Amino acid sequence: MATITVRYNDDSKAQAEAIASAIGISLSSAISIFLNRFVAEKGFPFDVTAPSKTQALFSDVDMDMLFSEAIKNSSAVATLPPSAFLDENGNLRHTE
Question: Rounded distance, CA 87 to CA 27, Å?
Answer without folding.
Answer: 20
